[in-house]
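quick q for whoever's on today - can somebody do inverse folding on this one?? i tried earlier but teh output was garbage lol. tokens:
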């Protein structure tokens, strides 16, 4: 199994996170404006271009982009896209923005979905004394896990999506929205 460019060039992706942390973001650098960039802004633009080129050649591009757009909120550059890019793609696909607690998977919080007892969640929900956040804290899992267990415990059949999203559909949307993609 080969290693992906984001692992091989982790220092580049960390640099982008550090520059983003200092207040520089892709929205400041949109378009080909004839603006004077500070050294940090110029560094960010150059590093972003390098990261996008590396991601474009990655064999995991399609699946990486799909996960970042549909599964969980991700910070930094993923599949050559910024957070703003992914928000545009989500919006174009008709997906709601991620809730703040949906970042737990990216932050590598221990995945406890299978370890949490659905009956216990159902009992706690029926008691109505705790919020989802409080239940998650008590059970040592994420609020997303609580919501999943609550949905799976009710016997309501959900209406399937008319056109389920596929990695190819997400990639196609990115290609249409992002001129550099």
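ok took a stab at it. sequence:
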């Amino acid at each position: 199994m080969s290693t992906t460019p984001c692992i091989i060039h982790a220092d580049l992706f960390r640099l982008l996170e550090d520059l983003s942390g200092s207040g520089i973001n892709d929205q400041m650098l949109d378009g080909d404006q004839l603006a004077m960039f500070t050294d940090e802004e110029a560094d960010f633009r150059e590093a972003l271009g390098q990261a996008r080129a590396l991601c474009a050649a990655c064999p995991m591009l399609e699946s990486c982009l799909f996960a970042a757009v549909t599964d969980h909120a991700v910070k930094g550059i993923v599949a050559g896209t910024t957070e703003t890019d992914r928000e545009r793609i989500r919006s174009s696909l008709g997906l709601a923005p991620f809730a703040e607690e949906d970042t737990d998977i990216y932050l590598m919080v221990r995945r406890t979905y299978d370890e949490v007892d659905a009956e216990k969640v159902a009992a706690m929900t029926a008691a109505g004394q705790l919020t989802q956040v409080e239940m998650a804290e008590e059970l040592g899992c994420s609020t997303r896990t609580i919501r999943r267990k609550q949905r799976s415990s009710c016997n309501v059949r959900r209406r399937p999506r008319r056109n389920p999203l596929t990695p190819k559909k997400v990639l196609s949307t990115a290609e249409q929205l992002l001129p550099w993609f």
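fwiw The radius of gyration is 19 Å. also Residues 104-113 have pLDDT under 50 and may be disordered. so keep that in mind when u check it
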